[in-house]
Structures are given as C-alpha cells and as structure tokens.
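ok trying again, last paste got cut off:
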Amino acid sequence: MLSALSITNIVLIDHLDLDLRDGLCVLTGETGAGKSILLDALGLALGGRSVTGMVRGGADRGTVVATFDPPAGHPAWDVLRQQDLTIDSGIILRRQIGADGRGRAFVNDQPVSTVLLRQLGETLVEVHGQHDERGLLNPTGHRALLDIYGGLGGLINSSIAAHDAMRRTALALAEAREAVRVAREEEEYLRHVCAELQALGPKPGDEEMLDRTRTQLRQGEKIADALHDAKVALYGDDGRDNGVEQRLRIAQRALQRVSKGAGGALDGAIDGLERAAAEVMEGIEAVAEGARSLDLDPTRLEAVEERLFALREAARKHRVGVDGLSALHDEFARRLDSIDHSGRRLAVLEAAADAAKNAYLDAAGQLSKRRVKAAKRLDQVMAAELPPLALDKATFQTVLSQRDEDSWSGEGWDRVAFHIATNPGSVLGPLNKVASGGELSRVMLALKVALSQNREPATLIFDEVDSGVGGAVADKVGERLARLAHDTQVIVVTHSPQVAARARHHWLIVKRAEGGMSRTSVEVLDAEHRREEIARMLAGAKVTDEARAAAGSLLQAAGG
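nice, full thing came through this time. structure:
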C-alpha cells in the first residue's frame, strides 16, 4: 500500500504531504488543477523518466518521496534482498530531480539506479491510464496473468522441472557427441602415442632411479678400485685371511690368558676388542654386499642413458614431466576406450534425452490445454464485464500461439496475448494498439476485475478510467472500482461524481494563485465537504441545492 506521498518543488507543487489509506481513494478537482502533476510526480518516485521543466520555477531541484507498506511475502521484499538493501518496516522510494533534468534515486536512503527504482515500482504500483504502457498493456506479461487466473502454478512447476531435465540431458548428449567427434579426429594420433608410451613403459620415479644409476655407472672404475682397496685392507693381499678381524681376535685371546691375574683390569679392553671384532665383521659383510649388488658393467651405462634420454624426449614432446608420462598414457588410453565404447554410451544418453523431452512435451502439453480452458473462461468473464462499461460492442479474446522449439521454456511453449475489437466487424488486434484512450482504461478495469481473485498485491491507480462515460455506466465503473478495492488500495483520478461517491477516502486537488504564482494543494474532504465537491461535479461552477440533494442521493446509494 502507498501510505504517504511527499512532493517538493515539482511543477505547480511547492510542497505537499499526502497521507493515503487503503480501500478506494479518489482524487478530484477542476480541469487544470494539477491532478496529472500528482501522478507524474509519483511516476518519478517509481523510476519514471524525468524531463526538464518538471522542477518548479525558481527552485534548484525537486524531490518526490513515496512510502509503501507492502505485506510480508510481497515481491518487493525479494528485490531488496537480492540487492542487499536495508530492509525496514516499510519501503521508501525517493527521487531528486535537478533543474537540468538530471537526478538521483534512493531506496530506504541508499543510492540506487533508476532501473532498480523502476523494478521496485513495478512490483508496488500498477498505473492504468489513457497512455499507459505498463502492467496489462505489456504483452510479455499476459502469459503470467493467464496462468495466475487459471491457477496453473502446480503445472508450471512440473513444466519447469521437466524443461530443466530436458535441457540437462540434451546438453549432456551434445557434449558427449562433441567429445566423440573431437576424439575421432585425433584417434590415429592417440593410438600412435599410446603405442609409443606402452613400449616405453614409464613409471613414476624412473627418472630419479635412472639418473642415480647413471651416476654410479659413470663412477664405476673409481668405485671398483675403492672396493678392491677396502677388500685388501680387510682380507689381506691374497684375500684368504681375515686380516683386521684375525688380528683383533689374536689380541683379545692374549689378554684373556692373563685377565685373571690382572684382577679385572683388562676386562674393559677385552670387551672393546670383542665389539671391534664384531663391527669389523659387519663392515666386511657390507663391503662384500656392496661388491655383489653394484652392477658396474660398462655396457649397461649405454642402455641406462638411452632409456633416460627416451623418457625425457617423450616428456618434452608431450610437455609434461617424466613422472607425468604414466598418467598421460592412462589418460590417452581412457580416451581411446571412450572412442571404442562411444556408441553404447551415446545410445544411453540419447535414450535419456528422448525420455526427458517426451516428459517435457507431456508436461507442457497439459499446461497448454489448461491455458486454453483458462483463456475461454477469461474471455467469458470479459464478455460479461465489458457491456456495463459501455463496451457492449467490443469483443475480447485471449490468443494463444505456439513458439518455435528454440524458444520453449520452463513455462511451456505458449505465447499469450490479449486482443480486442471495439467495433462490430473490426479485426481483433493487440490490446495496446487497438483500443482508444477512454476505451483502454475501461478494458483495463474489466481485466483487473476479472483477474482480481489471483493478482499480486499492488496499489492500483486509474487515471480518468471514466473518461467519456456518465450516468449508469459511470456508476458501474465506480461499483467495479469499489469491488477491486475490497482487498487492496485503489487510487482513482476522476471527473465522475458516480465514481467519487463510491470512494472510502476523498481528496480534492486545488490550484490557487499566490504571489503571482500558481500553486497546487490537496485537501482531505470530510463528509460535508465531500458532498459539496460531488455537487460541484454534478452542477459545474454554480452549485445548486438540487445538485447538493443529488450528491447526497449518490452518497447514500453508494453507502457513503
């Protein structure tokens, strides 16, 4: 609900604070008093386009502030959350316009773009006037309106889920086909590389091991000489005695023969010789093991170097490390396996894609059938709503057509548009191109009444919806506006006393000349002044007692 509107220095308004309420609110006043200025100012706060000349003469800038109190769950709160804007008890839209037409926009005192301001405004207010091109006049929104009217939310959710599954399976199939195509183009190369790597047999750690072996082999002569020297030192020149170990044992036995006479003084020396002999034996075994384990065959060096070179050359060619050749071979083998088994895998994906598409066709088909039924019901309701609004010769039709397959979506394949013919024999055409200004406002009203059961909560504004009608027709317009206002706020700018009499709240827009300048103000009317204003609307400039009596009758008949 629009709870307050504050306007400063906009055209004829120097300062105006308007407290609005729920239900049917009417704004009346003489022609030229500034009713359109009020709506234009509100349009600025809703993100409308600003132009030079909107700022009151002599002022540097103009400001419009619109305060809303949307209920919990209203789409406007989602917009605030998505934009990380402050969420308070209400939503305050503020627009500042400079004399040059440029300005700034704010939501809850945080600067925003006019695009975001417009996005919020479209969730909070629907303006229907003779030149309005938003809301029901926008054909892109007709499908959603028909779905709301038909209560098709469950079918739409099923269609969205089916469309998502169809899209995912189709994408998986397309990606698999592309992968197979690319793989087949390089199949010969893959088989060649796999054969090379298979013959090479790379394993992680090969490079380090071969490099270490090559170093050993290159030092083979030095290592052999060192092992020989160690063996001579340990075994003697002829290699038949134990050399060092034997001499240690001889020394140990010599000490043991006299150890008792030494009273234990030689025990430490005997034990030390025992340990030394044991260590020497371990060293002798280690030297022998080293000699056995080292393959110092000079012919092996060539083979090691050839393999190391081959591994490094393959790594350079494939731009990986030597340790990465094994993983590369596995990857290429996997890709070849994918090619070899691609037919079976593609068949599985094709079956899944076909099943998903059939499920979508079924879901979208059911949705389309229900839309056709809802469209017929809506057309019947409109056929009953239009005649009382002096549109008895008009024909309304909800037109459904099927989109091309590449335009199918989660909401189905239907294109929905509201068409109308206002005169017998004329061709049905789009709502926003066929109806005249006055007709259009009444068609909007009839549509709003037809859709009122399931519409999103928003303030509805009708600008001269009663244009060109009077008497009983104007009373029907007022009755429908009052019906709409049972559960939402409806603001109407009107010249019709029949419509004004139906209002729950009534404001009078007055233009006065003050200090050589015109100034527009708004007055809240009590019961007495309201009757006087309706009498003026009936009688014109001179209000008579008869007009006052007629105004009283209108108010009484309307329950006001």
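cool. The two ends are 22 Å apart (CA to CA). DSSP finds 19 helices and 15 strands in the chain.
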